[in-house]
Amino acid sequence: MITQKAKYALRALTVLADADADEPVMISDIAAQQKIPKKFLEQILLDLKHHGVVVSRRGKQGGYLLLKPAHTITFGEILRIIDGPIAPLPCLSITAYRRCDDCDGEQNCQIRHVFAKVADATRKVLFSTTIADAIAPKHSAEVTRLLA
Amino acid sequence: MITQKAKYALRALTVLADADADEPVMISDIAAQQKIPKKFLEQILLDLKHHGVVVSRRGKQGGYLLLKPAHTITFGEILRIIDGPIAPLPCLSITAYRRCDDCDGEQNCQIRHVFAKVADATRKVLFSTTIADAIAPKHSAEVTRLLA
DNA sequence: CGAATGTCTATAGAAATAGTAGAGTTACAC
DNA sequence: GTGTAACTCTACTATTTCTATAGACATTCG
After folding, report:
1. Best label site of A47, B27, B34, B128, fewest CB within 10 Å?
2. What is the tens place of the pLDDT at every residue in A104-113?
C-alpha cells in the first residue's frame, strides 16, 4: 500500500498539470478540489518543491506550478520522494540499498530472487507512467466530447 | 516494502519445503537456521497454521510440516496472510476492498488507473511463484554438483 | 510422571502515519 | 510603505503498525 500522503501528492500534481502553465495554483484551491487537509498538503508540496518537482510563488497571487512538463514527471519519482524506496526489500532498493543482516549471501537468498522480479515489474510501470498519462484519459474524453 | 514478518514467514516455509515430507521441523530449528527470533516465529507459524498453510505436531518430537505441496504455496498467498492486501490502494484490493472516500468515482480516478497496472504486474509475479520455485535454484545447484 | 514441544494472550518499545498548530517570511495591491 | 494574502518552516501529537518479548497453558512421547 502506498501512503495517503503519496496519493495526495500525485493528485495535487495532476491538478497542477491541468492548470495553465503559468498560472500558479493556490494550496487552498488544490486542497479544496482534491479534499486534502490543507496543512498536510502544504508539507507535501513543500517537499516536492525541495525535490525540484514544483516551484512556488509567494505572496499575493502566489501558488504552485510544475517545474517541468507533466510528461517528464513519473509516478515512480514521486513515490520515491514521498514514500521512499520502491523496492519490496531493502536489499533490492536502488536509492536506499541496505544489506539484509539476517540473510547470508544475496546471491543465495531465495526470497530476494523472487522479489527482484516484483521490483522490476513495479518499476516498469511506475517509471513509464507520468502525470501527463494520468490526466490523459480525461483530456481524450474532452476531445471526444468536442468532436461529437 | 514487505514486513520483516513476511520475510520470516517465507523463509520458514522454505525450510519446511526443504525438509522430509513427514519429518516435523521444530520451531527452534527453523529459528536457528534462519536467524529468526524464536518467539516471533512461533506467532508466525501459528498464523500460517490457522490459515491452513502448515500443520503442527505437539509434544515431544513435535514441530511443523507443510499442509500442502510446496509448489502449490504461492508467495502472494503468504503475503496476504502476513502483510495483508497486495494492492497498492485499498480500492484495488481483492481481499480487502475499501472505497477511497476522497476520490469521487473510481472510473474517473486518475491515480487508481495507474496503480491497477502496478497491482496486476505484482500479482502476476507473486501468484505464479511458489515456495518450490524459491528453493529450486538451490536444488538445481545440488543436481549440477552431483552430475559433475 | 516429566520433560519437550506447540498454543495462546497480553504487553511494550520504537517507528511510521496522518495530521494540527503557529510563528515566520515574502510579495503584491493599494 | 503598509496590510494582507499567500507560502515556509519547525514542532508537536494522536493513532496505528511493526517487532518483538513474556509467561502461563496444553499436549504428546518415552
Report:
1. B128
2. 676 678 899 9
